[in-house]
Amino acid sequence: MKKFFGGKSSKDKKPNGASASPGSATPPPPTPAQAQRPANGQTPPSSSSSSTPAPTSMHFTSLAGATPPAPPPGQNGANGSNGAGAGGYPGGYPPVSTPGGGYPPTSSPYGGYGGQQQQQQQHYPGMPQPHPHLQQQGGVIPPPPSSTNGPLYPPVRQGTGPLPPPSSNPYQSQPYNPGYMAAQQQQPAHQPPVAQQAGFRANGTRLTGDPKEDYPIVMAIDFGTTFTGCAFAFRKDPEIQEIITWPKQAYQYPKVPTISLYKLDSPDFLDWGYPARAVMMTPNAKRHLLLSKFKLQLDDQQEHIEPLPLGIKPLDAISDYLGKFHSHVVKEAMKNFGSTYDQSHIQYCLTVPAMWSDRAKHVMRLAAVRAGMIREEDPAHRLIIVSEPEAAAMYCQSKGDQFNLQKHDRFLICDAGGGTVDLIVFEVVDVNPDTGIRSLREVTRGHGASCGSAFLDSNMEKLLREKFQKYPLTPMGWGTIMDTFVNQTKPIFPGTDPEMYLQVPNIPNLPDANDLDIGLEDGMLKLTVSELHERVFDPVVQEVLELIDYQLQQTHCEAIFLVGGFGSSRYLFDRVTAKFATAGRQVRVPPRAELAVVRGAVTYGLHQGSIISRVARRWYGVDSAMDFVPGVDPEEKKTLSRDGAVRCKDRFSVYITPGQSVALGECVTKKYMTWCYPRALDCPLYVSDSKDEPRYVDEPSVKKLGDFQIPMPDIPGMMPGAEVLVEVKMHFGETEVRAEALVLGQTVTAVCQWVG
What we know:
This protein is of the alpha+beta class.
């Protein structure tokens, strides 16, 4: 890939001006194909794009002498300090009730960097003064707690204000291939997302481009590790309803097990939910595979993830399950609407953990296409990816009067589910007097870990296997004993007695069902409460407490809300209350806490824009060539630019820093000059979870997120290789990274070819 070149003379300065020799460009992406499972099981690339007319672009000659816009109000550009511091289970046993049990429910400053530091930097003749280094200021956040299931986010410095004002220099380095990048402007712009081009429904009727008009029904799907739920509402009568009926269920409940049934000798998908579980309770169980907890395959924080059995890929497992789930919930939901409405009138909100990577979110979007929820040609806004803590926050704010949440109050959402625990602190910014909806902003950088109630089950299984190592249980036997733990022991733990009992099924080679050495008497296994504390509950609960403590070290809050199935656990509530409740901080479990995410996601879809700003979780940047610094940059990275300047290749040019607050609709705009016409412009994007700013894109902590490909419009008379000015806008204030560009007077959507 050809590199762009620019000026930056020291390690603690961010990248600036750039140039590169002309080269070949990445061709435009192929025509979108219908979603299908590839033969090799690899994740297919995203391939949708749209363009809309836009005002004529500026000429380069006028750009060089242009005066940048004035800083937004309140952004004074004060100098800041250098902020470098701180699987499948053959005899499965999924539960049939809420994981974690049911607890009886009880009826500032932005976290970004505060300014920029002007520093004199070298630049080659003809290039404007390089962009100043953007610094962070403020105190160092304490290191996050370690997790036995994977590393958490590292500490970063937080400031006390929004984005710094734009620089007076409109030029900065970028590596986009190919061509000489003549200009870059980092300009925060508070503006609404660009409307999608109007298209057509599957039935051929035209879309208006307005989601509220095109999709009168909002449906949310909370795809969970152990259970999945669905709720929906009609925009004109926004009463939220849940799907409560499922195939072969024993009783009505608004969630269904996230389990799938496959043939044991081939990856043929057979069934899902309760019917899949029922098969594993028959003698035919040994011929089948019950796949569970496959959502955890998308957790990039886990250091060691065992691949799914039978060669099943995570995308395949998720799309198989969602396909059957979606067909059922749409059929049930449509019973509430007239014949003029069908599936094409639904806008979807799909929830994901806040700690998930951009790649994992993209996998969920691909799975939604394969599952038949959306089509590749649908507008991107038909499917909204919603973080689970944000959805839970929308649910809790709807109970704001009940919990006396006032303007400027802050509250911590602890979404403890079956697999993951996610946490974010929100602040109430304002209250809409007409709807009562509170607008919220993220105060802290959300983080979490895989330490949900499914890990209680795993701990329990390990304990039981130790006790029954002399008596191998059948898959049906394991299912029975684990169901007893999940449905009877876990919800009431620790109880009032020093011992708890589990009913054990018939054990081969043990006719009288007695073995006092392991505590088995008359078919009942005795477990002491102290043993359950030490081996099963406390290792997981302690991780949750450490996650909460890390958030509270960053900011104060008036309330802690425990939501999710595990969040409804009486034991977890007692431990959190004992450690964190004070006279000025309440700990509460809202009503129907296990449904907080799915119901809140519907509210999010009905009132989009209620989360007005988010805090970046990681570094985002691009591959740049910048001033070579002797003694700092290795000789093998030295390269010569077109103008004869000595540059360092593979530099990480920062777009967004961890802890930076980004408003909804806010974007970073960068301008380039290229000679790739009519081929697409290739824009690689990198991410890093490092605590320190990465210097090179090939560092171990840096991962390539994908390539944003910017198509060139067809302009009559334009010669191949002609000079083209491209203005790229990257949006980081939404749950998914989005890019668009102004090319030859037309606004085009950048298509991302995701890695992995």
